[in-house]
From TrEMBL:
Short name of any one Pfam family annotated for the protein: Ni_hydr_CYTB
Domain Cytochrome b561 bacterial/Ni-hydrogenase: 10-218
Keywords: Cell membrane, Membrane, Transmembrane, Transmembrane helix
Recorded coiled-coil stretches: none
Protein name as it appears in the record: Cytochrome B
Superkingdom assignment: Bacteria
Membrane topology of the entry: Multi-pass membrane protein
A GO molecular-function descriptor: heme binding
Lineage: Bacteria, Pseudomonadati, Pseudomonadota, Alphaproteobacteria, Sphingomonadales
Gene3D superfamilies associated with the record: Transmembrane di-heme cytochromes, Chain C
InterPro entries per the UniProt record, alphabetical: Cyt_b561_bac/Ni-Hgenase, Di-haem_cyt_TM, Hydrogenase_cytochrome
Amino acid sequence: MTNALTKPRRWDPIVKLTHWGIVGAVIGNAIVTEEGSGWHIWVGYGLAALLALRLLWGLVGPREARFAAFPPSLARATNHLGEIRRGEVVRHQSHNPLGALMAYAIWATLAVIVASGIAMSGPPPSDPAAVKGEHGEQGEVAAAILQTVIPSARAEEAGEDEGEEAGEGAESEGEEWLEEMHEIAVNLLYVLIALHLAGVVFETRRSGREVVGAMIPGGNRRT
């Protein structure tokens, strides 16, 4: 059973740009750049810009690219699972309900990755090649924020030496917390990407639609 809600169309150029740009940035920082290096930081800022553009486009872009076209809904996702079990193929205006949940999950995870990465690295270096090492200058910004938000009463009472030790402890604790959050979010992103790819393959085989073709030049369909 097929219900054609909308005519199949291509995704607009901004959606395609942000989609493949984010893919390239994730792959680049996963297997090309060194963690904490200047290039890793610059690619991270590029990822942040692409994510921001896509989120802005979700407010002002074409109808099928806007958040209103694919709101996150567990109820709709459950109904979509029922359609799959019954063998129904329903054409959705934009992402199908399961695809919508996946899109929001990926964006949220990317936002955590970007925020924690920027907090650890600070501004992008003027010379990317000059910043090397496992973590570069990560943690300095986070530590400063942490020391402001969580002042140490003991440091004020115990004098300069103990204050320095407390500050170093807060810096280390803040850096470790950010690194752990960053790593967890990155690993979660890999899981979501694997599920996303599996969903694309499944939907293509189930409905016969060129899901990938919607995201490449010359493609004429979408999920």
